Amino acid sequence: MRAALTVLFFLILAAPAAAWIPNDPGTSGTPGGWQADQWNFMPGTGVDAPRAWDNLIAAGRPGGKGVKIAVLDSGVSYARSPDLSSIRFARGRDFCSRMGTGAASCAGEDNTPEDDYGHGTHVASTIAESTNNGKGLTGLAYGATIIPVKVLNQFGDGDEDSIAKGLRYAADQGAQVINMSFEFGSSITAASEIPRIAAAVKYAQRKGALIVGASGNIAFDRVSYPAALKGIVSVGAVTEHGCLAVYSDTGADLDLVAPGGGDDAALPDQPNCLPDETLRPILQLAFTRKNKVFRYTRSYVGTSMAAPHVSATAALIIASGVLGPKPTAKALEDRLKATARDLGAPGPDPQYGFGMVDAGAATAKSGVAP
């Protein structure tokens, strides 16, 4: 069976005075300049990374130190990225070492999950890019350990076999959080069409992993697979206005939203949504497949970019100890939802789920960020 995946890409607020502000320069080249670029990490427009960083420093596990996050994607340029060199990487696996034939998008396996597309490096950087090193931008869970698992080829396509193998590998390596920033779009409409992935999801869940998936980028009124599988935390995207992104899939199965960048959807009774404005993407150091020159790529928007904010926040919750030393995946999901910032209609709704993930509140002992 072929299940080709197409990964679709499509006011700065000052942090509280007490919050830790890393010295990463961003595009301005000045210490702390990342704040002008990473609206997605700021309070108000984003997930309030400074408050979360303070909470983790106070807990003695800065940046989620010691938590294992598996990134199932196009691989990670852990050897080449100029701002991932100090990140701890666990042993990864490449389940897509060459292009497949026939029904398969991937073929071959090896132990070098090097990114040849750029997408996986961008996702991993949002989760754990080096922080306070005077270089580039910041990563939300900068102290976490990344397990790179390559399940997509150099065009961003993958198949059921590579993804199922990747999930089982991540679980066997002890991943506490698994990030899946890809979706099948309209090609898959039921769990019965991807039985090996569904079985691998259950396997990872039995091992205790929280699985986070992108809801999809086609503006469907349903969550795309595999994020629609039972037990996966599905994540839609919002813009810097805190408005549903124009491309984001929605529906009753949507759990949370997070910054994905791009333009606002046109929604009634939401004056903050301005669909005629061109809004900002999610910046990270990554590269294009064509030239592999690392720069601040400005083309990355999507639920693929939203999901890693939730994965990183889950890692910070684990490290913070607010749920005890070994929280279950269900406890993590409940915490993410309980501390999310409500958007749209009061309470859970099809556009925003339980609301926008709030790393500051999720890691605070009170569950409320100051």
Automatic annotation (TrEMBL):
Describe the family membership recorded for this protein in Swiss-Prot or TrEMBL.
Belongs to the peptidase S8 family.
Q: What is the lineage of its organism?
A: Bacteria, Bacillati, Actinomycetota, Thermoleophilia, Solirubrobacterales
Q: Which residues form the signal peptide?
A: 1-19
Which residue stretches, if any, does this entry annotate as coiled coil? none
UniProt keyword annotations, A-Z: Hydrolase, Protease, Serine protease, Signal
Q: Where are the transmembrane segments?
A: none
Q: Name one GO biological process term.
A: proteolysis
Q: GO molecular function: any one?
A: serine-type endopeptidase activity
Q: Which residues form the active site?
A: 73 (charge relay system), 119 (charge relay system), 304 (charge relay system)
Stretches assigned to the Peptidase S8/S53 domain = 64-355
Q: What is this protein called?
A: S8 family serine peptidase
- Pfam families associated with the record: Peptidase_S8 (PF00082)
What is the originating organism of this protein? Solirubrobacter ginsenosidimutans
